[in-house]
Fold 30S ribosomal protein THX.
Amino acid sequence: MGKGDKKSRRGKIANNSYGARRPRKIKKRPTVEEKIDIKKKK
């Protein structure tokens, strides 16, 4: 278990890959209500 292990978090970081052990950060999308409010302000 270490940098060479493709299933471990450290191995994912070393391999520059993502997976179940190292999920990507989710970008928060604006809600429908926020989109409507933004359009009204302009």
User: Anything to note?
Assistant: The chain has a mean pLDDT of 83. The helical segments are 9-15, 32-41. Residues 33 and 39 are 10 Å apart (CA to CA). The chain is about 40% helix and 0% strand.
